[in-house]
Amino acid sequence: MRQNAIELKKLTKEYAPGVGCFDINLTVKTGEVYGFIGPNGAGKTTVIRQMVSFVKPTSGEAKIFNIEAWGNSQKTMKTLGYLSGEVNLPPYLTGLNYLKTIAAIRQDVDWEYAEKLINFLELDANRKISKMSKGMKQKVAIVKAFMSKPQLLILDEPTSGLDPLMQERFEKILYKAKENGTTVFISSHIFGEIDKLCDRIGFIKKGHLIKEANLDELRLKSPKIYTIQFPKLSEMVRYLKMAPFTILKVSKNKALIELEIEPEKTKSFLNSLQNFEIIKLGEKPFSLENYFKELYENEDFS
């Protein structure tokens, strides 16, 4: 049975009535990649800062590898790499001097690996931090989080400020860490990152964890979106008269319709096409972003 890398029990930090995070209960197993999603101000960073001992909980507890985070940062920080959502680096140092200073403090850094990260991210590490762009500073922070090959990575908006090419390279670095058994807790607004890399996801809204889901199960259980193109309008109209499915869009000019099909109705949907002439049948891939929008637009969700 896998150990819990992260365990949060009734974790609460109340800055003001309704502001903070409240009764957060979640666990992340070793080797798991857990995505943490929510709109701005939902409480994601508040949860993370308690996990890395930056903020004392009002009540409840956060444990890292079964060690209480608050009051034991020297122990917990040895096992993890942390990337803050607000990168704050000493402006008077070069990137290289900063990374070597951190390496000297930690005493567990694989410097050969650090240099490999620097080169892969095309980081000009000899430049003074005060002269770096936001994206360059983000690269320094990524190297700092990964270079000790920690057991656990806690990443808050890790690709903020990176261009698309560097976002892809970051994903490759993270995927390699996942392959090597690193546990990852990642908060991100980039749904592609979460969709590609995570095993499970938690959704936070107004400081409350409203839902957790296994990503593979979510893909299987979510409705599928299909598009059907017919050779002529009359054939499309004939199908619409008998189709007992949810119609999302109709294009008369293209004789094309878009439908939403529940997983349990997939077989009957495909059977319904047998007596019709069609040019093209397509299935749209599951969209975590659309699922997120539907979940957060529904104020009655419980």
UniProtKB/TrEMBL annotation:
Signal sequence, start to end: none
SUPFAM superfamilies per record: P-loop containing nucleoside triphosphate hydrolases
Family: Belongs to the ABC transporter superfamily.
Gene3D superfamilies linked: P-loop containing nucleotide triphosphate hydrolases
Molecular function (Gene Ontology), one example: ATP binding
Superkingdom field: Bacteria
Cited InterPro entries: AAA+_ATPase, ABC_transporter-like_ATP-bd, ABC_transporter-like_CS, ABC_transporter_ATP-binding, P-loop_NTPase
Protein name: ABC transporter ATP-binding protein
UniProt keyword terms in alphabetical order: ATP-binding, Nucleotide-binding, Transport
